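Readers of this paper often ask what the protein records in our data store actually look like. Such a record has a labelled line for the sequence and another for the backbone structure tokens. The tokens are whole numbers drawn from a learned vocabulary of local backbone shapes. We quote a single record here, exactly as it is kept in our systems:
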Amino acid sequence: MHFSKLVPNVFYTDINEGLTFFVDCLAFVITHDERTAAQPFCVLEKDGLRINLFENAALAKEHNPEFRLVTDDIEAVYRQVAASHPAFLHPNLSTITRRPWGAKEFALMDKQLGVIIQQW
């Protein structure tokens, strides 16, 4: 059995909050856009990664995911995010920190999810 990609579905009460987080802050690109549909939906991509964003208030209340984005230059990612969107830095891990398991990490959060940026 072989899988080639993991594509998370993230649900927002207001899809524009997710677009601010992923497109404006993390530089993902909208590759499929159905924001004007009855049930707004977007596909975002960057560096071979894909995330599906949905606007659905009921599911947004039920699902609060957390996931990791792994990078080979955590300092550059941190500088960019801290300069452009410091409000997204998670108060419990707002600076690059060497974790007990050896990875360097910092964390981001918006109203719907947590994202840990990690470098091994």
